[in-house]
Amino acid sequence: MARASSNKPPEAPPDPMPARIEPCVATLVDKPPKGRDWAFEVKWDGYRLTVHVGPGRVRVITRGGYDWTDRFAPIAAEARQLGHETMILDGEAVVLDGQGRSDFGLLQRALGRKPSLHDPREILFFAFDLLYLDGRDLRRLPLADRRRLLEPIVAGRDGVIRLSEEVEADGDEFFRIACEHGLEGIVAKRRDKPYHSGRRPDWLKIKCVRRDSFVIVGYEPSTVPGAIGRLLLAARQGEGLAYVGGCGTGWTYHESVKLRELLDEIRTDRPAVALRRKGAVFVRPVLVAEAEYRAWTQDGKLRHPSFKGIRERADDAGVFELQR
Fold it and tell me: 202 and which of 31, 190, 215, 303 could share a cystine (Cβ 3.0–4.6 Å)?
């Protein structure tokens, strides 16, 4: 007797699980995009990671391809409890400050080898994409579908693995609010696009910048003859000044030469701040630089400052003051 044929189609073989996926990287733009095709999220200030869950093994891989499973052990341990045998999560490891904002300086301390006030278990992983699940490579799916699969896995969790929430809002309004709350910025992603490794226009980042005035206390010469390598900047602190880091971008070569000529006229052997730096040239603290920057490091230095202009230090009203 002939065996009855089954109308059930054969199951597709599982997709091989990638050992590493180079992450999709957002392109920096000046303002948020318009349209319903875009989803918005907070821009986290931390380490980009992928969490690879396999049979009997979890690996935490950095953006550069390094295995940092041991350094993010609580994240790896919790990933085993998410209920799936195979899975790759894409997201960011962060430490939050007292206002719930990601702080890269706190993250560095928590990961540091020296004793820290911050426990490594304070490091959270905010998952914002799902690249592989239960034998299926999801990168060919549009973002909206990947998020629909991701959210039931991590949404509502209060452990170290959490969901990076999408925000239903106008991009301009969301960006304004993010900057008002001291966040690093926002990310915009096309809902209808698959996942592509590398820097892509499908993902955009819009950064909040801060702009303040700092006293110029010296400079480091450039390797280019006659130019400046970095301005040495200080903020007001009490009755004196405190060094807040160096600024090495924001000018043309011609502007740099002119700036060095100006500073060489006010050189001094008595630095206005307690700073020892080989090769530094110190100047009298009579000029103020305008600088844009992203944030402050944990040790009180400017992150990614860029020079925007110079003026005389007529008074200290406009000079940034550090709170004790």
Answer: 190
